[in-house]
Amino acid sequence: MVLNPLNTFLTDNIVWVLIISALFVALIIYAALTTRSKRQVQTLMFTDQLTNIYNARYLETHFSDILMTIDESISFYYINIDNFKNYNDLFGFHVADKLLKGFSSRLTNIAPASSHVFRVHSDRFIVLSAARKDKDGAFTNELLKKLKKPYTIDEHEFRITVSIGRYVISDERPLYQDVLLKSELALDEAKRIGKDQAVVYDSRMREDHHNMFDMYRFIKDALKNNTFYMEFQPIMDTKNKTLAGLEALIRFKAKRKLLFPGDIINYAEKFNLIDEIDRYVIKHTFEAYRRFKQEGVPIRFIAVNISSSELHNSDFLTFIKQMLKEYSIDPKEVVIEFTETVDPQKLENESRFISDLRAIGLRVAIDDFGSGYSSMIRLSRTKLDRIKIDKSFVSNIVTSPSNQALIKAMVDLGRAFNLDVVVEGVETQAEYDFMLQQGIDYIQGYYFYRAMNTQAVITSFTNQDS
Ligand code: C2E
Ligand code: CA
Ligand code: CA
User: Fold this and answer.
1) I need a labelling partner for 38 at 20 to 30 A (CA). Which of 2, 101, 235, 250 fits?
2) Atom 25 of ligand 1 has which residue's CA nearest to it?
3) pLDDT value at 196 more than 80
4) Residue 15 above 80 pLDDT?
5) CB 146 within 8 A of CB 106
């Protein structure tokens, strides 16, 4: 009998053959499953969770492929809802979210079949569409008109307007960042000229953009050459009108055009320089605080403004600890002032950041309290030390019963949560009297003092008995 060598091998090694076959089958199943979960992960990565349309990540990574699907010259529309922040502030994020969903589905319906719609950030959307569809601005006008028709949410009607920046892509191999920037410049211009407008990109806008680069250099140089400096505004004990603490506010020695601190902070956020600015502010403020103490200025705390958490590097907290040590400062005497977020999605990160700051021993105040979206939610979720009632409630307090009621309510809230209450922007005797009646702990404002430099603080508060 002639034995087939393969048969012999199979019968002799049957167990191994079975094991290898099983492994092979398992491998095929595993590969199929991972392809499926990979696809699921990709869908998640590239889809905006709220509106179910593609997100910025998808647009950026697939930009040239998307352009190829539109076989002619293309318009890139950057669309932004005007004053969207107000919807969050006034109606809460569940209403604002519904508005965004309604907006997104309307936009998808208006957009021509071959076009692409993306939600790139909060209330910012992008449409890519064949330029020929927009002869004489017909499609742009349609967008402006149809997007502002009322939206019905929970039986209420909401009206919005949009601003649009449009860039017609003419380069053969356009870069996503470049196209985005140009449409954004056009969008900025549409906002500047009064909103509810569309503007087509024009190369002159690029010149303004070069000024932005100047700004970038300016901030970088100021950080390097120490041309920023800190001023300090006294925060007074309400009852006995004596100095309680100081708030550090950034200033700079500018030979060029006048810039307000708010401008520096806005630009720094745009350029990702906030982390550097905040570190600069902390270092210089702590240095001055140590000096105030050494010179005998009778203060119990120093307040420092810090920008939103996600703009900071992960070692930011370590940096603060180092600085506390370097200047021998008791963390309990440092109050970090945090402006209320306008973005509900950031709330959780911020709560964590606040807890981390408090874990170091620092105290945390919510700045501009009452003006943002999250006042109430934050109070119930995050342990805080202080609220600082926004100055917008203070002006015209004497003639405005509603502002009076709001301040009273905020003070009650502060008390209920066992928080110190500070009011800023108190300018007149009448405003001071009202705050005194409310039992507010601390007052800051021109009624007492404006911000002053380090030396002025020392001279004002060491020669007198305050
Ligand atoms: P803020 O934190 O709300 O600071 C209070 C602002 O109100 C200061 O303006 C202060 O000069 C002004 N102010 C104080 N009392 C009165 C008053 O009685 N009446 C009026 N009309 N205004 C008063 P400033 O210095 O222009 O700062 C503006 C904003 O810039 C600050 O608002 C803060 O958000 C930001 N900022 C300032 N310094 C820094 C900083 O060092 N770091 C960060 N991240 N932000 C800063
Ligand atoms: Ca502040
Ligand atoms: Ca404030």
Assistant:
1) 101
2) 249
3) yes
4) no
5) yes
123 Cβ closer than 6 Å to some ligand 1 atom: no
pLDDT tens, 118-146? 999 889 999 999 988 888 889 999 999 99
Give Cα separations from 333 to 191, 368, 392, 441, 442 (angstroms). 42, 21, 27, 16, 15
Our answer on whether the CB atom of 308 is closer than 6 Å to any ligand 1 atom is no
Give the pLDDT confidence score for residue 466 in this predicted structure: 43
Ligand 1 pocket: which of 305, 364, 443, 453 to mutate (most atoms <8 Å of CB)? 305
104 touches ligand 1 (CB under 6 Å) = no
Q: Which pTM value belongs to this model?
A: 0.63
Give 367 Cα–ligand 3 centroid separation in angstroms: 5
Q: What separation in Å is there between the alpha carbon of 248 and the centre of ligand 1?
A: 9
Examine the pLDDT at 2 and tell me if it is beyond 50. Answer: no
Amino acid at 245: G
Nearest Cα residue to 143 out of 166, 121, 123, 122: 166
pLDDT of 422 higher than 90: yes
Q: Which atom of ligand 1 is nearest to the CA of 261?
A: 30
Is 272 within 8 Å of 219 (Cβ atoms)?
A: no
Q: Please, what is the average pLDDT of the chain? A: 87
Evaluate: CB of 24 within 6 angstroms of ligand 1.
no
- Residue with the two structure tokens 């053969």: 172
